[in-house]
Amino acid sequence: MRAPAFSKNKQQFGNDDAFSRSVEIVVTPLIFAGGGWMLDRWLNTGPWMAAAFGTVAFLVKIAAEWYRYTGRMTGIEEEMASSRPTNSRGLDHMEEVDDHLPTGVTLEERAVE
Question: How many domains does the chain have?
Fold first, then answer.
């Protein structure tokens, strides 16, 4: 994570972090598939190890992102719950209701002519 002095714009940091994660999701399986392809050539086994390594790397990256996301959302939800007002109406202070009618307004029904 960046030092606080460098993270002046949190929106930009979020975009930068999302871009780097999306690149990781794509590049990591490609690297593993490349390693599997080299192992396939060395063992003369066809494309099976490349497909297996690439698939496993992709699934592991998706699972890691899922757990990272749920952990982050749980922390945000707990933070939001702790900052909520505590009384049952959701208000810290009683509301004052102004139930006076404006000048010239009555509740009497008008006669229909």
Answer: 1
**85-112 pLDDT, tens per residue?**
665 555 555 666 677 777 877 777 776 6
Sort 21 into a burial class: Cβ within 10 Å, 0-12 / 13-18 / 19+.
Answer: middle
Q: Where are the alpha helices (DSSP H) in the chain?
A: 10-43, 48-82
State both tokens at 95.
Answer: 């509301």
* 66 found inside a domain: yes
What is the C-alpha to C-alpha distance for residues 65 and 26, in angstroms, rounded to an integer?
A: 13
Q: What is the pLDDT of residue 56?
A: 95
Q: Is residue 67 part of a domain?
A: yes
Q: Which structural domain, as residue segments, surrounds residue 72?
A: 49-81
Q: Rounded to an integer, what distance in angstroms lies between the CA atom of residue 80 and that of residue 74?
A: 10
Question: Is 22 among the domain residues?
Answer: no
CA distance 57 to 66: 14
